[in-house]
Specification:
The complex is a heterodimer of chains A (306) and B (323).
Chain A: H1 8-50, E1 53-54, E2 64-65, H2 69-75, H3 78-109, H4 116-124, H5 131-141, H6 148-152, H7 168-193, H8 197-205, H9 210-238, H10 242-247, H11 259-268, H12 273-300
Antiparallel strand pairs in A: 1-2
Chain B: H1 7-11, H2 14-40, H3 42-76, H4 79-83, H5 97-103, H6 108-139, H7 145-154, H8 160-175, H9 180-184, H10 189-193, H11 200-211, H12 216-223, H13 228-239, H14 241-256, H15 260-265, H16 272-279, H17 287-307, H18 309-319
The chains are: A mainly alpha (306), B mainly alpha (323).
Chain lengths: 306, 323
């Protein structure tokens, strides 16, 4: 550690120790690298390569090299443009509402009140529902024959919203918002707890009302959390699959055929890995743009402390 | 508001309309109280405001909880009662038949068992690999360390949804290998576990915790003759326990809730999330079984939420950083 000249024997010992440390270092990261290499980087690179070959219409025929033309074909196809549109709509339906509701609940639960912890637990409770649990619950709530929501909305016996081209995506979005409400609440609550009480106290002595305090103190202080939640929520929403698979299978008439579901169908119904690979790369590109936006704007636009 | 419902309210079922009217009336009364009290007596206004808050919190709790509540109620009712109109909103029968049917004929017991096995190995594996890698990044020096760290971070940029079908091909071809095939082929626990044995996110999180430990600690331990592995296990890991606990809970949630990968890679060894898909296909006269299965699938996470609320909140909040 010291810069003082060391005698040769100790230097040799230090050298041996450094080699040992080095080997230990590699040994410790190696297991992770093996997993990453096999199940993340290798398939990722392979996707690009798969996208260059056209999968034959019948199995056992040789696949043919088509180069980048498959990328062009798939990215301009009706399948992709529709899926992209549906996915963006889905993100636009779920993320803002989900964050707003989570923030609303968090603000309401962020007060000194007897028994408030019970309400906090209730508001975070939907984190215990997985996509599958939430989908099954709503599948039965929206069932045309026995669905309670259908009954209460006066739609008993008629089409379930899930089968209605106009409402299917909205219904799936509603389920998703409910399922993620607990998580949204937890994140927003954590953000609220980080807002220093002194600031709010100072605003109060300056005569700022409840709304003004929220608007001018809490909200700006929350902006990193809100920004984070928006980006991460969008990424998660872009990757939605389970609720589509369980609730609508992409229907009616592809109105809920989000990107991941389109990939899934291309693989398992069309057996077309080449096409699926291009769709997957498009999904990756979208994710990367969102992540880069997150990294880029995180430091700049968002106020941390003044 | 008379009993004959017209207009928008008329389109709704009577029970629901009554509920809305009752809530509105409660809110109007307590807001009125608050306004009147504010003029007349501050103490009264305070009471009214408090009532207001409870009403608002209560109503929102009802809305958030209702889907879960009605699922529990329905899981206890016989199937014909569930379809009855007006609906039964309270458990009248307490029939556990749905549960026993879901448990045995619905295979929920084996789904849950599979999920527990898979989740346990994923969480344990992720903790071990994350702690090891984090230790290397925080306490050891070796060539290409920064590059390797960037590689770890880069894994967070590739979502599993992008590579799942290519990984499926990998798993299929591994299944043809002589010995490994039994552990890693299609429809094995290995296929469900191995792709998730390491996470860049976990390594990053634990590294941050290790870096926040005082540097003198390592030097002091070295003087005491502690090697790296002993130091890691005896000193660094115990001190980073809060972070590791948060990571463990986050991993548990992530692994337990997986859907796409277990769906495409298994046939026999269904996890409970994919098992629910089968349960959703039963006929309506057995719908209480579906409800019971749904409740059973949520119980483990519910227990985690109630027991480890603090760590869970930490884990999920930290997890929000992950893309």
């Amino acid at each position: 550690m010291t810069a003082v000249a060391t005698p040769p024997r100790r230097r040799r010992r230090r050298f041996r120790r450094r080699t040992r440390d080095m080997l230990l270092g590699y040994a410790l990261v190696l297991p992770s690298l093996l997993v990453f290499g096999t199940f993340i980087f290798y398939p990722f690179v392979k996707n690009f390569w798969l996208g260059l070959y056209r999968t034959p219409p019948f199995p056992n025929l040789p696949r043919s090299w088509v180069g980048l033309s498959q990328y062009r074909d798939v990215l301009t196809s009706q399948l992709f443009t529709n899926s992209f549109k549906v996915t963006v709509e889905f993100v636009a339906l779920t993320v803002p509402v989900g964050i707003t509701l989570g923030l609303l609940l968090a603000v309401l639960a962020h007060q000194r009140l007897r028994g408030i912890t019970i309400f906090r637990t209730i508001f975070s409770s939907t984190v215990v529902t997985s996509v599958a649990v939430a989908s099954l619950i709503s599948l039965t709530l929206l069932n045309p024959q026995i669905g309670l929501l259908n009954y209460w909305l006066g739609r008993s016996g008629s089409l379930s919203p899930l089968d209605d081209p106009k409402w299917a995506l909205v219904a799936v979005a509603g389920v998703t918002i409910w399922q993620n409400l607990g998580l949204s609440f937890i994140i927003m609550s954590a953000g609220l707890q980080a807002v220093p009480d002194e600031l709010l106290e100072a605003a109060r002595t300056d005569g700022a009302g409840t709304w003004s305090r929220f608007r001018n103190v809490t909200l700006p202080m929350l902006s990193p959390t809100l920004f984070f939640a928006t980006i991460v929520g969008s990424i998660l929403a872009f990757h939605s699959f389970g609720q589509i698979d369980l609730l609508t299978q992409g229907g009616p008439e592809n109105h809920t055929n989000v990107l991941v579901y389109a990939i899934y169908r291309t693989v398992f119904q069309e057996n077309n890995n080449g096409k699926a690979a291009v769709l997957a790369i498009a999904l990756f590109a979208i994710t990367m743009v969102l992540t880069l936006v997150q990294l880029r704007f995180l430091e700049r636009r968002v106020s941390y402390e003044r | 508001m008379s009993a004959d419902h017209t207009g928008l309210v008329g389109a709704l079922a009577p029970g629901f309309a009554h509920f809305l009217v009752a809530v509105a009336a409660l809110l109007v009364t307590s807001i009125g109280l608050a306004v009147v009290g504010w003029r007349a007596r501050p103490a009264l206004a305070h009471v009214a405001r408090t009532i207001n808050r409870y009403v608002l919190l209560g109503v929102l709790s009802l809305i958030v909880l209702f889907p879960i509540y009605i699922t529990v109620v329905n899981s206890l009712l016989p199937a014909d009662k569930i379809a009855a109109r007006p609906p039964t909103l309270f458990p009248t029968h307490l029939l556990a038949g749905g549960y026993s049917q879901a448990w045995t004929q619905g295979h929920v017991s084996s789904y849950l068992f599979n999920s527990f096995v898979v989740t346990f190995f994923i969480v344990a594996g992720q903790l071990v690999t994350s702690i090891c890698a984090a230790y290397a990044f925080a306490f050891l020096d070796f060539p290409l360390k920064r590059t390797i760290f960037v590689v770890f971070l880069a894994t967070m940029m590739v979502p599993f949804e992008v590579v799942f079908f290519t990984n499926l091909q990998t798993v299929v071809s591994m299944g043809h290998l002589p010995v490994i095939g039994h552990f890693l082929g299609l429809d094995t626990y290995g296929a469900l576990v191995v792709p998730f044995l390491a996470t860049g996110f976990g390594a990053f999180l634990v590294r941050q915790a290790f870096l926040s430990l005082p540097r003198d600690l390592r030097d002091a331990a070295e003087l005491d003759g502690y090697g790296h592995l002993r130091f890691m296990w005896r000193v660094a890991v115990p001190l980073a326990r809060p972070t590791i606990a948060a990571l463990a809970l986050f991993s548990f949630f992530d692994a337990w809730n997986q859907y796409l990968w277990p769906l495409v890679v298994t046939d026999h060894y269904r996890t409970v999330q994919v098992g629910l898909r089968q349960l959703s296909r039963v006929s309506l006269d057995q719908i209480n079984v579906t409800f019971a299965g749904t409740v059973l699938a949520a119980v483990p996470l519910l227990i985690l939420l109630l027991v480890f609320q603090k760590q869970l909140v930490r884990g999920l909040t930290a997890g929000a950083v992950k893309g």
